[in-house]
Amino acid sequence: DIVMTQSPTSMSISVGDRVTMNCKASQNVGSNVDWYQQKTGQSPKLLIYKASNRYTGVPDRFTGSGSGTDFTFTISNMQAEDLAVYYCMQSNSYPYTFGAGTKLELK
Amino acid sequence: EVQLQQSGAELVKPGASVKLSCKTSGYTFSNYYMSWLKQMPGQNIEWIGNIYGGNGGTGYNQKFKGKATLTVDKSSSTAYMDLSSLTSEDSAVYFCARQRGSLAYWGQGTLVTVSS
Questions:
Q1: Residue contact B109–A43, C-beta within 8 A
Q2: Which stretches of chain B score pLDDT less than 70?
Q3: Are B47 and A98 within 8 A, CB to CB?
Q4: Among residues B109, B38, B36, B44, which one has the least CA distance to residue A88?
Q5: Are A8 and A72 in contact (CB under 8 A)?
Q6: First CA to last CA across chain B, in angstroms?
Q7: Which end of chain A is more exposed for a tag (fewer CB within 10 A), N or C?
Q8: CA-CA-CA-CA torsion sign (A44, A32, A27, A6)
């Protein structure tokens, strides 16, 4: 199985901050990485698909980049409603696998 | 509007089985795969497997073979997951999610608690 190593595990941030997190795949997954946001008690929500494509209705402060084994997710201007856990997921091969998540907390 | 409505929370005894449902609406059920996923409290998300709405063809994560069985009822646009021989390690929230590469639509999740 492909291992997705996500970092950091958590971040203490302030509203307005630029937030960057990373995901490293244990083998080449092309551009087949998605990023999901999960708020407490809710289902995950797709934000970015195929590494860099913003899903319908997702604000442009959310961006993704990368290919191969290294991927980055950025929130350019952190808002209070962005407090959540963010997961990367590879859909290049079965079984789909997720990173362990990055939890964003207020400083 | 695409909707995935999952069945309610379950409290089941160790060794028992449980069948979860995911009733869909707002799209052509037979044109998509449905994935099922597991999330233990405060933990990572695991992909259990998927099933194609058109012909019921399935694919499983090796880890969940023998534990989970996926089926569909095309007439009601509903996907099901049977979980067998339940233990405390099966206590988790289980999600269904419509799959086309990415998982763009998710159900609200079903909490399964295994306890005597």
A1: yes
A2: none
A3: yes
A4: B44
A5: no
A6: 40
A7: C
A8: negative
